[in-house]
Design a protein that fits this description.
two-stranded antiparallel ribbon; alpha/beta; 26% helix
Amino acid sequence: MDTLSYKTISATAEKAQKEWVVIDATDQVLGRLCAKVAKIVRGKYKPCYTPNMDCGDNVIIINADKVVLTGNKWDDRKYLSYTGYPGGQRVATPRILQLKSEKAGMKAGKHPLFIKVLKGMLPKNRLGAALLKNVHVYNGAEHPHEAQNPKVIDINKLK
């Protein structure tokens, strides 16, 4: 038996083939959609997956304003943040974060609700922060990333 053929291949930053993908969030459940997006961003659907490298794809999520939450989660779920000052604990519901994304002063591509949910599904280190920069979320159907030639994928086909 040839033991040289059983070597584990680890991807490097140069060898990682990063692509751009577009995902339509219309009528998708928020948590299930973000779980699949986190796997795409992490690179777990690729055969060259390496846990300590950024080998995933860049994801563009369109129609983020048409995402669905089941039950009364729009108002019952609470997201906590802390300013660092005494009495600085802030509480936000998904409805508040969704309304924040529609403000004109919000940075393009950074949807607060999706960022909050995806951040919890990625590693809690520098790699997770770098992976979060590969996600671009837009409320409408238009996005400014046409130059990257993104391919449209059906999120319902992924497991």
